[in-house]
Every structure is written in C-alpha cells, then in structure tokens.
Amino acid sequence: MRVVLLSVVLLLCGTLVAQAYEDQNLEDDDFAEFEQFEVDDEEESASEYNEDDKEVPPVPPMKQKPSSEEEFEAPIETEDDLIVEDEDNEFEHFQDPEEFEGFQDSVPRTNEQPKITISKVPIMVRPRWDAYWLEGILCCLLAAYALAYAVGRAKNTSIATNFLKLHKPLLDDNFTLVGETGLDVVAASDERGWRREAEHCFTMWCSGRVCCEGMLLTLKLIKRQDLVHVVLNVVRPTPDTLLVRVELGKDDSDPFVLCVAQKKIATRLSKEMQDLSVFCPERRPGDKHGLPAALSVMSETAEATAGVLDARVQAALALYHAHVQYIHISDRYSGPKQMEEGAVAKPPECERVLLVSLALGPDGGGDEVRPLLLLVFHLMDKLKRLRLSKEALAKCEKRRQKVAEAWLRGAHAARQEQAAQRREEKRKQEKEKILAEDDPEKQRRWELKEQKRQQKRKTPKMKQLKVKAL
Q: Which residue ranges does the record annotate as region Disordered (predicted)?
C-alpha cells in the first residue's frame, strides 16, 4: 500500500516538473511558433522546386535563435555596408535591378550582364541663310547709317569751305579779324575759318568794325550725317540757314524794337520772344510799308519803321525776300520768354542786337548771300545814324519804365506769396506741435490766440485822426 502511494506521488511530481520545464522554454523563446511556420514554408518551396527541376537543394540547418536574455546580454556587432557611388560612371543605372523590371524573367539567367550599345550619331549643322534675315537687315541699316554719316559730314564740310571761298573777301573788307584758329577749324586756304560746333553747325566770329562790337556768323546746315533726319527732310524739307548776330554798342542805336519776318515766322516770334510780345504786340502786313505781301512788320514806333525801311532796304527785300526769314532789331533783347512758374530773382539781362536769319539755297550759299550781307552792313550803318524825335524817344522810355515797374510789382507779389507760404507752413508745424502735447490748457491758449489773430485780420484798417480843440 505504501509502495502504491509512493509511486503515485512520484508520478505527480514528475508531471509537475515536466509542465514547468515546457512553460519555461515557451517564455524564453517567444518566436518559436513563427520559426516553425518559416521552416514549413521553406519545406513547401523546396518540394515545389523538386517537382519542377527534379533536383532537391540541400536545406541548410536551422540555427537555434538565442533567448531574449542572451540577446540583451551579448553585445551585437554589426557592420554597415558602405555603398560607394561612382560619380564618373554615367552607365551605373544599368546596374540598378529596379531599372529593368521583368527583364530577368524573360531572359535566361547568366552571369554576364546585358550589354547596351549606344551608337554615336554625328551632328550635321548646315547653314541656312534664310534664318538670319533679321540680322542681315540690321547689318544693312548700320552700314547705311555709317555711309550716310561719312557722306553727310563731308558734304557739310564742303559747304562751309565753299562759303568761305565765296564770301570771306567781303568779310575781310569790313572787319579786321575774321574767323578763328584752332584744331577743330574748317578753313578754305589760310589758318582762320569756321569753328566746328557740331557736324552740321559752324560758327565764325568777326570783329574790328565801327557801328558794332562784333558779329557772329552761325551756319546751321541740314543734318546730313544723320540718316533719320535725311529721311525726314525728304518728307518735310528745311533749308540751310545762316544766322547773323550783330552786337550793338550802347550808343550805336536809339531804344526801339522792330522786326520784319515771314508771316508764319512772325506769328511764332511774337509768341516766343519776350521783347516782341511786350513792346510789339501788333503785326501789320508788309505791303503797307512798301514790302512784299509775304512779310509782316512788328514795330514799337512808326518813326523807327520809316527810318530803317528806306528805299535801299525795300529794294533788297523785294528781290531777296524769299531768302530772308526775319530781321530783328531790339535794345531789350532777352531771348525767349521766361517760365512763369517761379519767381525770378532779378530781371533778365537785355542786349542791343541786330539778328538776321537767311535761308540758303540748295548749294549752301551762292550769289544770293553777298547782297544780303551788304544789306546787313547797310543796316548797321543806318542804326548808327538813326535818331528818333523827342516825343517818340519819350514814349519809348516811358514804355520801358512801365515794363520795369510791372516786373518789380510782379516780383514783389511773388516774394509776398512765398513769404505767406512760409508763414503758413510755420503755423501748421506749430499747430501739430501743440496738438501732439497732452496739456489741454496750453492748447486752449493757442486756440484763443489763433482766434484773435483771425479777427484782427478780418477787421478793416482805419486811420485815427486827432482834432485839436479851438
């Protein structure tokens, strides 16, 4: 009986020890079940492979996975695989297995890599001249502009040289010094000649003559060196001009303003010139003074008109009025009108001048220039001898005095307006400064002060008279 009980107890103890051992193995290896599944999958794949190829590959023995405690205790040493990319290899995409998907299935497996041959195609560049038509047009325009510049400059220089050859003897007879010297001077034969201001503009100073302080000749030619102006000149032709400016002395003429010009030019001058718009507002036709109907006369006094336009002047203008653009005589010449936007600090400087503008022929000054230059010399002598009557002279002086007073009033009004603007700006700044402060008492005092100032400004000014008792 004891033996039976002892055997039952031993059996129970063995059973308990076996169960404890199995539970411990399960706790140590949590992934044993998954390993079993992997082994089963490998066996199934191996069986399938054997059916197809009739060859059974050896199955490598499974390594027992260490327990979790051993994984934490034993240090795991891993080596990172370094991938070195060769930047110089431009065919490395051929080595990428993902680049050619499905290629390995259709091609039998071999150790050799597929070879892809890239053929080198030569680049054939054939010139097509029709593709450069825009560049060709631009090159032609540049060549035409350069050719026009060279030809036009040479043409203008030849006109200036021919003018000297024809008319310099006349200038030498009337002046002591004619022309200038220097590097940029266009001369006919000797050293003195035109001074080149531009490719189309030449100037020459003459001095050493009675009845004047000097004379400046300005030859303004067509801009033949500019292709654009040449084309515009074909559409709207303009002639070559010679501007004669004679500087008169203080005692060389009486104070008066007179202008004889073409009708269109007279209208423009009366609007632009300061002295003509002030002293000669009225334009009269030239036939009333014995001149051609194409000319207009603007004069300050009738005595000056009758004294200047004598028989010789009338005959010359009757023959060559087509070449005379204007003749302007003035003792108050100040150029074009000044801008009226701002106040002028001082009155404009006035000069005594004789201005003559001549339109030259197509050859740049031929036989028509000599009689017109003689007319200019005659006018210089005429102005020296001309004297107005006392009544006419008094009227001219009175008119100039009124103009000076009007200018002074205008300048004074402009200064007052500027002063008022400055006071207003100062008052605005003071008001902004007071409003920026937080003192209401100070603001109230400023408002009372401003109200008193406004009332005093509106109150009319009255004079107070004191009467003594008898």
A: 38-74, 415-470
